[in-house]
Write a structure and sequence with these properties.
Shape: globular
Distance between the termini: 76 Å
Strand order of the largest sheet: 1-2-3-4-5-6-7-8
Number of strands: 20
Number of helices: 20
Length: 604
């Protein structure tokens, strides 16, 4: 038997799953020399949500990260996760963008491209795989594992055959939610390895506590590679511990040959590093067998908890987890992996927080139902499709066939802010935040979000984050765990009180208020906008930011006409006119933060 190939995910998926993708390059580079000596088959270090997090939160250039890691890991191939025709964004890109992105990724240091499609629509993998092969790098075709009435072993085997025919060098079975059981792992591995001659790798999250035994069973039945995470970033919604699997395989026919003592040194390093990111730790990243029902993958549940916290609704997580399977069924049972996990998850959040299912439908949900992401694995709820699309027919054929080339337009739009083709591609992936990032870089104002909770001032003693309070004769132990976004009016803080999670809302009392009572007048929100009290007041369904304004004062609008686009939890939503009339006033600009109680536009 050949040695088992081990890919460690600590530089990408492990921290994406456990600390919301916040690991900084400065904490990766010092350990690279030792990581490079281990002898891993590869290190997954790029792709997935890391590109987004670098630009949006860390204020790092993701291309510079890739180049730095490539230089620091001369003996170990860097692997990336590529979302097929979606690349690293949340929409399909034209073929010219796909080719340009993959060519630049290979030139900057990616050796192994794990290419998947969230729908398992292999039409969306054809061009990305061709592009990888054109660079001379390793193309790993990927099957997203899930369970539903429409997913079968026979279907997965047929997809493996098609990926082999496309020219893939290896296959990956991507169990992003930790749904595999040992019996199914053995059965599926046997079927796939018996049908195709190329190596099979198993990627399985530890959410349900089954990944290690599933991987061992898969190895026994023909899998050649597995994904693991160094122990400090293992377990829960991440992966089985690298050290544990290396120890389990030692002195067997499948011995990985990796140095366990060196791995332990690396584990101790990351144990200390992880402490720095305590504010990004999620309460929902431990072992949770509910994943066998709700199918929420590791990275999704970590980010979902952070997103709900920002909405001040962390206490409604159980409702959202119960709603996700219902939305998934109505959308035709897509596997829950980016971007479909965000589409299903955000729509479930909206269904719960607005109090009415599909009262608000995100643009991404509409695009999904239109067929812009590909073919749904199962039948879609036609009533929902009609609600979202009206009488518009769904798209037939490969979605990207409808897209015109974009690279020339993107170069013109971003102009001198782009110093390289890589900068143009950053703008292509995320136009709004990409432009802001490139502008801040030019202005010299790039500032990453803080790792620690802010203190009162450098001169004054830091505010305590753990204390005891006494109220009505009862004592409570309080620990401050985080803070949400600050607006002019209020800011949420998150605590545990005797171990139970709680939220408090700190409201600013204005020094000079129009009603003379020390607060903003009842008819205005804290930032001066009127409150949404009249039928013609347009308001957002949940806190977010304004992406675009579709009308101007004096425009005539009809009821239901989109007038604004807002973004919440990385998903865009059209805000529609509640009544017909004329636009009287607009109280927001692009980029403004908004809350549901504010009148953003007035219609008379």
């Amino acid at each position: 038997m050949p040695k088992v190939r081990i890919t460690d995910t600590v530089l990408r998926d492990a921290h994406q799953s456990l600390i919301a993708t916040r690991l900084r390059t400065e904490d990766m580079l010092p350990i690279c020399e030792r990581l490079d000596r281990v002898g891993f088959w590869s290190l997954e270090a790029w792709g997935g949500a890391t590109f987004d997090a670098c630009v949006r939160f860390l204020q790092e250039d993701p291309w510079e990260r890739l180049r730095a890691l490539h230089a620091a890991l001369p003996n170990t191939p860097i692997q990336m996760l590529l979302r097929g025709q979606n690349l690293l964004g949340y929409r399909h890109y034209p073929d010219d963008v796909v080719h340009a992105f993959i060519e630049r990724a290979a030139a900057n240091g990616v050796s192994i491209f794990r290419v998947f499609d969230a729908m398992n629509d292999l039409r969306n993998l054809q061009v990305p795989i061709e592009a990888v092969k054109a660079t001379g790098q390793h193309a790993q075709g990927t099957i997203c594992y899930t369970t539903s009435p429409v997913h079968t072993v026979e279907q997965f085997v047929q997809q493996a055959r098609e990926l082999h025919t496309m020219g893939c060098d290896s296959l990956a079975l991507k169990d992003m939610a930790g749904l595999l059981t040992p019996q199914v792992a053995a059965e599926l591995t046997t079927a796939i390895t018996g049908a195709v001659p190329i190596p099979l790798h198993i990627h399985s999250h530890a959410t349900a506590g089954l990944s290690a035994i599933c991987q061992y069973k898969a190895i026994e039945h023909g899998a050649l590679g597995i994904d693991t995470a160094i122990s400090a970033f293992s377990g829960g919604t991440s992966h089985a511990a690298t050290e544990s699997l290396v120890a389990a395989l030692r002195d067997t026919p499948y011995d990985s040959g990796l140095d366990l003592e060196l791995l332990q040194e690396i584990g101790f390093y990351f144990r200390e590093v992880r402490r720095k990111y305590a504010r990004f730790e999620s309460e929902f990243t431990g072992l949770d067998t509910r994943v066998q029902v709700n199918q929420v993958p590791g990275g999704m549940i970590s980010n979902l908890s952070n997103q709900l916290r920002e909405q001040g609704a962390l206490d409604r997580m159980d409702e959202v987890l119960a709603e996700i399977p219902r939305v998934r069924k109505e959308l035709g049972y897509p596997p829950l992996v980016t971007p479909t996990s965000q589409i299903v998850g955000t729509q479930a959040v909206l269904n719960v927080l607005t109090g009415e299912r599909y009262k608000t439908i995100t643009n991404e949900t509409r695009f999904y139902l239109q067929g812009r992401y590909g073919r749904a694995p199962g039948p879609v709820d036609e009533g929902l499709r009609r609600l979202a699309l009206g009488g518009e027919p769904p798209i037939e054929g490969r979605p990207a066939d409808r897209l015109a080339p974009e690279m020339a337009r993107l170069r013109d739009e971003i102009g001198a802010l782009a110093r390289s083709e890589e900068d143009v591609l950053t703008y292509a992936m995320f136009p709004e935040i990409g432009r802001k990032f490139l502008q801040a870089r030019q202005d010299g104002t790039l500032t990453p979000e803080p790792l620690e909770l802010p203190t009162e001032s450098a001169e004054r003693r830091a505010a305590p984050t753990e204390f005891t309070i006494t109220l009505h004769g009862e004592s409570y132990h309080v620990r401050l765990t985080g803070a949400g976004h600050r607006s002019q009016a209020q800011r949420p803080f998150y605590l545990t009180v005797d171990g139970e999670p709680e939220e408090v809302l700190l409201e600013t009392i204005a020094e000079f208020a129009p009603d003379g009572e020390g607060r903003a007048a009842a008819g205005n929100s804290g930032n001066g906008r009127p409150r949404a009290t009249q039928p013609g007041h347009v308001s957002a369904s949940m806190p977010g930011s304004v992406v675009d304004i579709l009308v101007k004062p004096g425009d005539a609008v009809s009821a239901g006409q989109p007038v604004l686009i807002t973004e919440a939890m990385k998903m865009e939503t059209e805000v529609q006119a509640p009544v017909a009339g004329t636009i009287k006033a607009i109280h927001v600009a692009k980029g403004d933060s908004v809350t549901p109680d504010e009148a953003l536009i007035e219609i008379e």
